Amino acid sequence: MQALALAALIAILPSSHLDTILERGEILVGTTGDYRPFSYRRPDGEFEGFDIDAARQLGVSLGVEVRFVQTSWPGLEQGLLDGRYDIAMSGITRTLDRQKVASLSDSYLSIGKCPLIRRADRERFPDLDAIDRAGVRVGVNPGGTNESFVRGHIHAAEIVVIEDNLSIPDAVATGRVDVMLTDNVEAVLVANQDSRLFAVLPDSPLSHDELSYMLPPRDSIFLNWVNLWLHQLRLTGELDRLRERWISGASSSQSDHHHGSAELSVPQLLQSLTAMPVVTQRVFKGLQK
């Protein structure tokens, strides 16, 4: 009798996405492909970045194949809810609004917003107050935390919505817009790659946020598994190796200390990374290929 009752209970319990993934032999990973150094779709169609490498390690740990599904920031949550992918991995900031509709994993990186400006405008835009003025144009991509931050803090300056996040730094450099407000990791990365650009005070960001992975709601089995997997990445040093590959301290190209930059060596970076539970906001450099 008890066995029958247990079997009936098991039959009505909801299955986990983890079971579905294992049975399918493949995990579908949603990613935007427009946010270096976490997710970038190259011209040949292949994805690369911190979270792309992490997703491949996730597949290895699960013993399944990995298939990337391109998504967008405005459609990120809905794509997950519609079942287009099992997990979203794309430098996703933990927010209370996202937690309302999805599950968010433990954090793996600390970040914060900072302005990306033209190097020639360092005296013009030393802080947010100087940016939020009439006549200033702030470029932002729709649907993510960059837009939320801009709309919550920019009131006098003009907000220019640009669909392609990857094109906004060039819009700043060429004068189409004056400022991009984005995560300090991205700001320093693109400033390292384009001498016309400058990241303002990346080590003293305008916000303090954390990145995580987004999973379907109300699936504690899958969420607990991913959190344990992240924990084991920390224990084995794999998470540190991902950070070392894709994020490696402040660039010497931004070494003007009077304007909020700091020149750190790779050993200093590694020491800073191991000193913090996630990663500090003080150590950012560009993409290493």
From TrEMBL:
Family matches, as SUPFAM superfamilies: Periplasmic binding protein-like II
Solute-binding protein family 3/N-terminal domain span? 26-250
Swiss-Prot/TrEMBL keywords: Signal
Checking Pfam families in the record gives: SBP_bac_3
Supply the name of the protein. Solute-binding protein family 3/N-terminal domain-containing protein
What lineage is on file? unclassified sequences, metagenomes, ecological metagenomes
